[in-house]
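Trying the structure run again after the queue cleared.
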Amino acid sequence: MSNAATSLNTMQIHEIAHFAPQYSCLVRGGVKAYSELANETIHCTAGHLWVTFEGDTADYILVSGENIVVPNQGKLLVSGPGCYRISKGIDGMDLGLAS
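Done. C-alpha cells:
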C-alpha cells in the first residue's frame, strides 16, 4: 500500500466532514441539537421544521424550500417533522472549499 493510501486510510472523518453538508430527517417531535455552526445555512428540504437559536427570543418555522442562516456559534435546536440540509451554501449550492 502506498504512503498516500495509508494516510487516507488513517485520516479522521471529522477532518473531512466539517466541510460536507449534513443531511437529516426528523419525525414529529424529533429534535436534534447543534452548536458552532455560525454562518452556515439550514435548508428545509421536505415537510416543515421548527428552529430556535441560543440567545434569540424568536422561533422560526421553515417549510420545504426555505432556509435560514445560523446567527451565532451557540446552541440551536431543530425539530420536525421534516428533512433538512446544513451547509456552507450560496443560493442552495454547497461550497466544497475550506474557509
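The two ends are 32 Å apart (CA to CA). Worth checking whether this holds up in the mutant runs.
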